[in-house]
């Protein structure tokens, strides 16, 4: 169920809930990004969001309903799974952008990447996401990934 803020944003910006190869969805950036695991309530994010551990293999801890809708996977299907094993499709664009993102991640900094992934229906999609370090007990323990753009590239025939 959409909140009043979401409904207002969608109406004002003519947000299309069904992205296709000819259009995409831009998600508004959150005004306040949490910096601790304790304050990272991803259910409050309008767009897709995911929390992973901060160390390889970046195990998925939690996802929000928008992430479930974007990927076609439920939270129970991906919890405790390696994030890069579920959606990743090897391709030059994604691999290069992920290498750049990993430099930020290795230094526990904010990063951004544009990648092509595959959803549960085996459809390719492009998304731009930002990764924010989350601390717990004064050390980076998790990452918050927030999608800011999503576009479906292929459809099932």
Give the key terms.
157 residues, alpha+beta, six-stranded antiparallel beta sheet, 5 helices, 29% strand
Describe the structure.
- By secondary structure, the chain is α+β, with helices and mostly antiparallel strands.
- It has one domain: PAS domain (Beta-Lactamase).
- Strands 1, 2, 3, 4, 5 and 6 form a six-stranded antiparallel β-sheet that branches.
- The radius of gyration is 15 Å and the shape is globular.
- The two termini are 30 Å apart.
- The outline comes out as globular
Mean pLDDT: 80
> Under CATH, the topology is which?
Beta-Lactamase
CATH class: Alpha Beta
Helix content percent band: 25-40%
Tally the helices.
5
Number of domains: 1
Secondary-structure class? alpha+beta
**Uncertain spans:** 12-16
What is the percentage of strand-forming residues? 25-35%
**End-to-end gap:** 30 Å
Largest beta-sheet details = 6 strands, antiparallel
Rg (CA only): 15 Å
Give helix and strand order, one letter per element, not per position: HEEEHHHHEEE
Total DSSP E strands: 6
Q: Provide the CATH superfamily.
A: PAS domain
The CATH architecture can be named as: 2-Layer Sandwich
What's this, in brief?
With 157 residues, the protein is α+β, with helices and mostly antiparallel strands.
List the helices and strands and how they pair.
Elements lengths: L3 H10 L11 E2 L22 E5 L6 E4 L1 H7 L3 H4 L4 H4 L5 H15 L4 E8 L5 E13 L2 E14 L5
Antiparallel strand pairs: 1-6, 2-3, 2-6, 4-5, 5-6
């Amino acid at each position: 169920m959409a909140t009043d803020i979401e409904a207002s944003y969608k109406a004002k910006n003519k947000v299309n809930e069904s992205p296709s190869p000819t259009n995409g969805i831009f998600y508004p950036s959150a005004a306040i990004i949490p910096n601790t695991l304790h304050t990272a309530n991803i259910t409050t994010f309008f767009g897709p969001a995911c929390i992973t551990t901060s160390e390889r293999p970046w195990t998925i801890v939690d996802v929000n309903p928008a992430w479930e809708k974007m990927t076609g996977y439920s939270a129970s299907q991906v919890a405790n799974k390696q994030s890069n094993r579920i959606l990743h499709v090897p391709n030059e664009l994604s691999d290069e952008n992920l290498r750049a993102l990993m430099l930020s991640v290795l230094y526990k900094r904010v990063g951004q990447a544009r990648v092509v992934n595959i959803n549960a229906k085996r459809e390719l999609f492009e998304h731009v996401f930002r990764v924010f370090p989350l601390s717990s007990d004064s050390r980076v323990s998790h990452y918050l990934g927030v999608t800011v753009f999503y576009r479906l590239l292929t459809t099932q025939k």
